[in-house]
Amino acid sequence: EDEDLLSEILVRLPPLPSSLPRAFLVCERWRGIVSDARFLRRFRLHHRRNPPLLGCFVQGISPVHFEPTLDAPNRVPQARFPFPIDAVHTYVILGCRHGLMLIFLWRRNQLLVWDPITGDRHHLDVPPGFDNEETMISGAVLRAAGVPHRFQVVLVGNSGIHHSQAVASVYSSDTGVWSNLVSTLLPANDPDVLTMVYHDMCSVMVGNSLYWFLIGNFCGILEFNLDRQSLSVIHVPVDVDVNTCSITVIRAEGGGLGFLFLSDYCVQAWKWKTDCDGVASWVLERTVALDKLLSMNSEEGSQSPRILGFAEDNNVVLLWTFIGVFKVQFESLQFKKLLESYRFYCWFHYYPFEGVYTADAGIM
């Protein structure tokens, strides 16, 4: 009989696409609550920290398309999220976070912040100070906590003046302006070889820092601390050749910065730890044999597994193997097959998309 109590119960339904459509069918009273715009905002806000992995945006031979990965009745139809750009070879996807996608429109020197669920689009001009001739910028998008319509964009790249420096700037939708550039020196042994952000790994957010991988003269991790608005560089624990192995930054077991290194069928999970003297270093936490974990016969595969990306909110790594595309939780070693490998090649680009989908009741 208490309308407020019923609303509090319904807002705690699982954040799956079928939850609200099922509640909508119960009775007229429930229908009125779950279809109210204010309730839908509360529902999305309540579950902002535990959204499901709805699927991936896949960039391959054909134009970018959404590939759902949930099982029925939570499977979002592929056509629900049509990609907003028709012209190919005019953009670079920089990643997804908090239900938003960041796209670099390199011909226009603009960024596009796109909300696939609502269809909202925001175009931003790239601020001066970034090199756009010898290297390419990268970046990350994130929503302000508790306010779904506010967002920030963190842009990183090589300095347009000194290519040996990394620079960063932050855009706030509150002010509509970019912050002043911050910079850090990029380690280099050979001044003729540039160190730059590796575009096959999207940014990863751990705590209140964003991380990118660096390649070229130096292989390492570029960190942008959102609190201090500062850049720093972290070395990696192993020698990395991105042509023969794959990597990603992850959230380590128990929290903190982690690094996943995959060579052939062997995965190494490292954690950045600080000792009692305040000295930080990498510690090998776990080694996993993928062929044993996923019951693969490595002699049957012509191509080794590859890391596709990291879904932050679900803390799972997406892996391509010759028997399928999997999501793997390396703390629990739980895994699930998402896609068939015969339809999706290892050299495709995959962008995990996590969000609370409340768009329609016809999903049932």
In short:
The chain has 364 residues and is mainly beta. Helix content is 10%, strand content 42%. The protein has five helices and 25 strands.
Task: Name the descriptors.
single chain; 364 residues; mainly beta; five-stranded antiparallel β-sheet; 5 helices; 25 strands; globular
Provide an overview of this structure.
It is a single chain. The chain is mostly beta strands and 364 residues long. It has 2 domains: 1-47, no CATH class; 48-354, 6 Propeller (Neuraminidase), CATH 2.120.10. It contains 5 helices and 25 strands. The strands form 6 sheets. Strands 7, 8, 9, 10 and 11 form a 5-stranded antiparallel sheet that branches. Strands 12, 13, 14, 15 and 16 form a 5-stranded antiparallel sheet that branches. Strands 3-4-5-6 form a 4-stranded antiparallel sheet, with no helix packed on it. It comes from Aegilops tauschii subsp. strangulata. It holds the Pfam family Beta-prop_AT5G49610-like. Residues 93-353 form the F-box protein AT5G49610-like beta-propeller domain.
Helical coverage, percent range: under 10%
User: From the 3D coordinates, which CATH architecture of the largest domain would you assign?
Assistant: 6 Propeller
The backbone outline, from C-alpha atoms, is globular
> What is the CATH class designation of the largest domain?
Mainly Beta
What is the CATH topology of the largest domain? Neuraminidase
